[in-house]
Amino acid sequence: MAGCGGDLSALDPAGPFAESIARLWWAMLLGAIPLFALVVGLFLLTVLRPGFGRRLSAKGWIVAGGLALPLPVLTALLGYALFQGEYRLGRPGSEALRVEARARMGQWSFAYPDTPGAPVTVGVLHLPAGRLVEITVTSEDVIHSFWVPRLGGKIDAIPGHETRLRLLAEAPGTFGGVCAEYCGVSHTDMRFTVRAHEAGRYAAELAKAETGAE
Ligand code: CUA
């Protein structure tokens, strides 16, 4: 339960993309509870009541419990997850503000091609609140993973390749970000901070932002 709050909680969403993930999580939890109860209940009945279940043949149990039960549940979940995934990745060339995230062992740096004069910031990602942002993610060395749990999903940072992820912070604030793929001894150093500024003050805040230590 300690993971349900705080800076890095995926269950405390601060924008629509993270919210869609949290919703899926809650739906899966609520769906898992009756299914778990059903399986444990059947197990207890077979243990406590000898002869229970004999009326259904072995084949019948496999068809009912191994096909009829999981197939519709997993198909529905897969469909919903694919739909949500497309929603979070978005389409290239949309109205989003572009930001580039570059990973290298022990460090995240961020560039702002749509904001003239903006510095490259290290360890701090600046966003305008209330505006759709498309992060282009890449890596200089090994595979990392970009993740701001309160704002959106994870996306791998792959050397020689660009991946995209959309984020939206509903209100100004500070959020935690991490590398979500084990990438060596400096993995734990790859925390970063996301600052969402009021949209009107974004360019000014970004212009005076510190570049950060190289
Ligand atoms: Cu970079 Cu873990």
Give your account of this protein's structure:
The strands form 2 sheets. The protein has a 5-stranded mixed beta sheet with strand order 3-2-1-5-8. It starts with 15 loop residues before the first helix and ends in a 7-residue tail after the last helix. It has 4 helices and 10 strands, in the order H-H-H-E-E-E-E-E-E-E-E-E-E-H. Strand 6 (144-147) and strand 7 form a beta hairpin. The chain has helices at residues 16-48, 58-68, 70-89, 202-207, and strands at 97-104, 107-111, 121-122, 124-128, 133-139, 144-147, 154-157, 163-167, 173-179, 192-197. It has 2 domains: 8-89; 97-211, Cupredoxins -  blue copper proteins (Immunoglobulin-like, Sandwich), CATH 2.60.40. The chain has 214 residues and is of the alpha+beta class. It is elongated. Bound molecules: dinuclear copper ion. Dinuclear copper ion binds at residues 103, 144, 179, 181-183, 187, 190.
The CATH topology annotation of the largest domain reads as Immunoglobulin-like
Number of domains: 2
CATH architecture label of the largest domain: Sandwich
Q: What would you call the quaternary organization?
A: single chain
For the sheet with most strands, the description reads: 5 strands, mixed
Beta fraction of the residues?
Answer: 15-25%
Total strands: the figure is 10
Identify the CATH class of the largest domain.
Mainly Beta
What count of helical segments does DSSP give? Answer: 4
Kindly name the structural category. Answer: alpha+beta
| Helix percentage range | 25-40%
**Associated small molecules:** dinuclear copper ion
The best one-word shape is elongated
With strands numbered from the N-terminus, the spatial order across the biggest sheet is: 3-2-1-5-8
Q: Return the string of H and E elements.
A: HHHEEEEEEEEEEH
Which regions contain 5 or more consecutive residues with pLDDT less than 50?
A: none
Any idea what the CATH superfamily of the largest domain is called? Answer: Cupredoxins -  blue copper proteins
